Amino acid sequence: MALKLNVLSFPAAKHSAFPNGSQHRGSHRVFMASTLHPPSVEVGNAKKPFTPPKEVHLQVTHSMPPEKREIFDSLNGWAESNILVHLKDVEKSWQPSDFLPDPASDGFEEQVKDLRERCKEIPDDYFVVLVGDMITEEALPTYQTMINTLDGVRDETGASLTSWAIWTRAWTAEENRHGDLLNKYLYLSGRVDMKQIEKTTQYLIGSGMDPRTENNPYLGFIYTSFQERATFISHGNTARLAKEHGDMKLAQICGTIAADEKRHETAYSKIIEKLFEIDPDGTVLALADMMRKKISMPAHLMYDGRDENLFEHFSAVAQRLGVYTARDYADILEFLVGRWNVEKLTGLSGEGRKAQDYVCGLPARFRKLEERAAAKAKQASSVPFSWIFNREVML
């Protein structure tokens, strides 16, 4: 799961698909606050505790009605046969060392020299995007934590043998390779300021994320379906650009990660497909609720200790390079709506039909907003990125 754009914003939903959450709904539902706090500092002899640089407020929790949990209990056997099959045997899986210079070999120094030579002419803006993707992959502890907040599917013991828990741990293990591989590549490249990157990762993990999934697996698996497809697109585009810049090994690295993300997308999408089969009304209401709130991207609380708008600046570079764009956001939703046959749902309640119409009309609406955003983006500006030694990059 990699970093993506927060490209579209809509008013918060006044009503959830699951209205009996533990906190008041309606007008108290809010987005992430923009207020920033300085990192922990020592004042005299007193040391202030770490405070996340960006705050979130009035989060809704446990919005899924208790009786819905029975659905996920009943699907444990189905998940074993239909979801766990999308995991790869560890002994047959690729590992980061497969793509990197071998430190035990006599030719290690020469291999590193070749790597640095290949990436020497790759432009700074590409490295900004690659670093942003890597940092988001490195915040993997946050994503496993998020999935383990979901009622009915969480790993209750840390080593639970339910299919849901096995999937979450094994998915995390597969995803863990992504950050490891990109981190080592960037370290060896010599093109980036690793200490600033490491600080950004520490800030991000310490801050967490606020996907607004409300401990609700309907919302959570819609979120992960969207995100996995987004990361598939993003890593695929960084592979394409690496190839254009002449670094075929980096293209192979990004393409291999993209293939993992595609496989994970398939698994999460199958879960929602099954929920549409069992509970079409509840699932379409959840989809509409998630899209009204918009898909908050995993690293939206990104901070490097300097740039209070780091995520927005990174996103602007990704948009300009075509790595991940507002059009991609619309395309992903259109793809998922088609995959889940949302337009063909029947037997819905009145509220369900309204949600169906709303969701099916969103891709066209998103594309209109994307055209407006593209027009505004024509005003050129540049900002320094600490990740590349404060060199400036065009947004």
UniProtKB/TrEMBL annotation:
Location(s), subcellular: Plastid, Chloroplast
CC per GO annotation: chloroplast stroma
Cofactor mode of binding and number, as noted: Binds 2 iron ions per subunit.
Pathway annotation from the record: Lipid metabolism; fatty acid metabolism
Keywords: Chloroplast, Fatty acid biosynthesis, Fatty acid metabolism, Iron, Lipid biosynthesis, Lipid metabolism, Metal-binding, Oxidoreductase, Plastid, Transit peptide
Principal cellular location given in the protein's record: plastid
An example Gene Ontology biological process: fatty acid biosynthetic process
Residues that bind Fe cation 2: E175, E228, E261, H264
GO terms of molecular function: metal ion binding; stearoyl-[ACP] desaturase activity
Pfam families referenced in this protein's UniProt entry, alphabetically: FA_desaturase_2
Residues bound to Fe cation 1: E137, E175, H178, E261
Enzyme Commission number(s) of this protein: 1.14.19.-
Cofactor(s) it depends on: Fe cation; Fe(2+)
Protein family: Belongs to the fatty acid desaturase type 2 family.
Complex formation: Homodimer.
Function: Introduction of a cis double bond between carbons of the acyl chain.
Protein name: Acyl-[acyl-carrier-protein] desaturase
Species this protein is from: Oldenlandia corymbosa var. corymbosa
